[in-house]
Amino acid sequence: MRFALLSIVNLRDVPFISLLIYQTDERGISNLIGEISKPYDDVVDLLDDLYAFEISELQTDSQELYRDLISANCPVIYRREVEGTREQITRNEEMLVELF
To answer: Strand 2-11 vs strand 57-60: parallel, antiparallel, or unpaired?
Structure first.
């Protein structure tokens, strides 16, 4: 099973999504297998990523993303805070701003 944690962070007035992808093995142990940080344009691009990486469960701490995903019939769980996603954006802020 693959699940993901999703957040949106504004960097210099540009919204970036942070997606941490985990794979759960047959023993129930989850390992981080991918990290994506990129500008957030619209929910269609996000849905493409979720389908491409075969995400079966998604959790987000963004009410905006939650509403967009629910309206697109994507199964998503809203949590007050998901760990690691905002730290990833902060850690890579300079590189992300230069790239995009």
So the answer is: parallel
